Structure formats: structure tokens, C-alpha cells
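Input record, target 12 of the design panel.
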């Protein structure tokens, strides 16, 4: 190879190495260094800005008050007409309240106690349910609160006699955590 060709090849090779080096440097500078990068401690991160608000005041709707005829102390209150449940603390204030889908068989008004619980079973309607909290029996039908694993709610017009008062999965978990064996359940109109 003549000397002039060798010099051109060397110059081109050097230029190519420089270009590759610059591109590699730029790529490395913009990519996280996985060898030396440490996980950010959330206690030291910058505080997040509050979400932008419109001119209106964002106010959650007031929770339905605990029915006054439901007694005192720690209890579960089930209002048949309102189709609603309250988990009431020892101070008489609602810890949580939420709507439910009633069963086709309703318990008579009065006070009961949680009689049994099951983490997961198949409901009388054939649906997989969880967090089952039973408290009454009406003409051979066991009545209790439960949540369908698939999130479904029973058909209120069904002719089948069922005792499952359905709640959402999140509400079912809250009920499960609150309703230990023997917890008072008050059924009001």
C-alpha cells in the first residue's frame, strides 16, 4: 500500500474513532448509570405540587349519617331501605359507609352478631365470593355480607332465594377486617 493511501486510511480511522467516541459519550451522558446509580430516598425527594384546581371548591359529598335508631357502640349497621352499610366505631362514628346490593331474602329488623366467616366460597348463586361475614338465618337461608371475586352484583329481580348482601371487593375487605366473630350487626329499615 502506498504511503499516501496509508495516511488517508489512518486519518479516516482516527476520525471514525472520534465520531464513535463522541456518540458513545453523548449516549452515556443521557442514560442512567446502572452501576453507580443509587435509589432515591423518597424522604429527600422534592415535594409534589398540589393538583391544579378549577375555580370551584372540590368538596367530597357528605357521608350518610349513621341511623340514630341503630344503637350505640361498635357495630355494623345495615339499612334495608337505604341499601347501605355503616361500620361504626366504639365512639359511635362511622369508620366507613357504602352502598350494597341486597339479597333476595332480608333479615328481620333487630340486633344480631357475626356468627361465622369464610375467606372464600361459592355463593348460593354459583358465583365465587370472598370475605363472607354471616350473621342471620331466615327460613333456612343464611344471610351475610360478601363480595363477588369477579366484581359482579346479583340480579335483584331473581326469583332464587339468596342471603348474600353484595358489596364491592374493597368494601368487602373493609367489612372482613372490621367484623370479627361476635361483632354486633343491627338491621334497620
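The sequence produced for target 12 reads:
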Amino acid at each position: 500500500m502506498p504511503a499516501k493511501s496509508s495516511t488517508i486510511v489512518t486519518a479516516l480511522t482516527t476520525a471514525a474513532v472520534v465520531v464513535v467516541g463522541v456518540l458513545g459519550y453523548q449516549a452515556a451522558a443521557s442514560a442512567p448509570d446502572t452501576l453507580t446509580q443509587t435509589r432515591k430516598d423518597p424522604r429527600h425527594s422534592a415535594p409534589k405540587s398540589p393538583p391544579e384546581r378549577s375555580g370551584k371548591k372540590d368538596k367530597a359529598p357528605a357521608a350518610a349519617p349513621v341511623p340514630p335508631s341503630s344503637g350505640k357502640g361498635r357495630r355494623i349497621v345495615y339499612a334495608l331501605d337505604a341499601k347501605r352499610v355503616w361500620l361504626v366505631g366504639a365512639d359511635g362514628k362511622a369508620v366507613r359507609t357504602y352502598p350494597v346490593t341486597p339479597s333476595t331474602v332480608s333479615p328481620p329488623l333487630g340486633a344480631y352478631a357475626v356468627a361465622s366467616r369464610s375467606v372464600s366460597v361459592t355463593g348460593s348463586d354459583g358465583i365465587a365470593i370472598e370475605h363472607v361475614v354471616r350473621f342471620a338465618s331466615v327460613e333456612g337461608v343464611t344471610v351475610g355480607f360478601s363480595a363477588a371475586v369477579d366484581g359482579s352484583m346479583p340480579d335483584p329481580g331473581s326469583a332464587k332465594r339468596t342471603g348474600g348482601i353484595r358489596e364491592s371487593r374493597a368494601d368487602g375487605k373493609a367489612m372482613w377486617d372490621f367484623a370479627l366473630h361476635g361483632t354486633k350487626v343491627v338491621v334497620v329499615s
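The helical segments are 3-30, 169-178.
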